[in-house]
Amino acid sequence: MLLADIGNTRIHIYNGKEVIHLSHKEAIEQYADKKLKYITVKHQLKEQLNSLKNWTDISDQIRIKNEYETMGIDRKALCLSHPNGIFVSAGSAITVDLVEEGVYMGGFLLLGLRAYIEAYATISPALKIELDREIVLDRLPVGTREGISYGILNSIKTIIDKHKNRKQLYITGGDGKFLSSFFEEAIFDERLIFLGMQRS
Amino acid sequence: MLLADIGNTRIHIYNGKEVIHLSHKEAIEQYADKKLKYITVKHQLKEQLNSLKNWTDISDQIRIKNEYETMGIDRKALCLSHPNGIFVSAGSAITVDLVEEGVYMGGFLLLGLRAYIEAYATISPALKIELDREIVLDRLPVGTREGISYGILNSIKTIIDKHKNRKQLYITGGDGKFLSSFFEEAIFDERLIFLGMQRS
């Protein structure tokens, strides 16, 4: 059975082996006649998705103990992937959630890397930079581009580290692989949301 | 002698007792015939400021050992206010700088509180919230508004705490008083930049 995670900008499809990332249009064109179960946060697509007879919305089945009402369905699925851990999804926003014995313990939202960079540029043209992806976080930087890159990446790293304690850190999402390079013993796996869907 | 710090949106004037915050237009109208020394980051105003015969640009005198070329003049003045410490200016952006024995040791830039809030809203209408200024940072929140407010304020607090060690924390800027409430033993003083100007 194919599984799909329909996000704000893309549809991610898991065929049991790999995750395929497509635009909404591409995914619907290529997969309309395939049997597929999906979750979606893209409410504007609801009617179009309902018209696809082979596609089944399983969003209502995705529940985690202690969830809150407006909690994103993709976050719930991610938190269901393993019974214990701290779960990071690094996309348009970066969500950080804690799960203990299958119970949702709370979490918080940071900006996604692109949103950070674009927000600095709105403050002043002098702060319009490209992220320095080679920045070293164990010494204080000098310079604007370095200072912004360090501020973004180290504030993300530091607050995640603070909540990690001895828990396993699981990371997914488009910027997940890059972010996981800043943590020792992090598990990056782009299938986590699908594992959660399978387990629900 | 009056001192002025000309920022991107306002002019801050120090009369030796208190700091007065005015729009560019208001400040120029009310203070054009007063003797005044200023620093400025607002390059678009340069010609108009030069035409004020009682106003003297002392930006060239503001230098700190180990400064970098594009370092903002207000940051330099702030770092000159005390020979040792960690200096936070919480305005449109939040700058965090370390000074040891009068030497600039580096620093980084975070988004200002308003820039954070506006950036979340650009990601999704579901993330458009007002900052919860009563948020408690010692327990993990549940909910969107709480999760965003916690993410903003605790990522700022945690990375500043990480760099504080046993140094004195000095805070200034429009959001400085509010931010200082999250730190024990922080000194909030809106005169810091002017103390730096006096000492240069």
UniProtKB/TrEMBL annotation, chains A, B:
GO biological process: coenzyme A biosynthetic process
Cofactor(s) listed in the protein's UniProt record: K(+)
Compartments reported by the entry: Cytoplasm
Keywords: ATP-binding, Coenzyme A biosynthesis, Cytoplasm, Kinase, Nucleotide-binding, Potassium, Transferase
GO MF: ATP binding; pantothenate kinase activity
GO CC field: cytoplasm
Predominant location: cytoplasm
Family: Belongs to the type III pantothenate kinase family.
Xref: PANTHER family: TYPE III PANTOTHENATE KINASE
Quaternary structure note: Homodimer.
Name of the protein in its database record: Type III pantothenate kinase
Species of provenance: hydrothermal vent metagenome
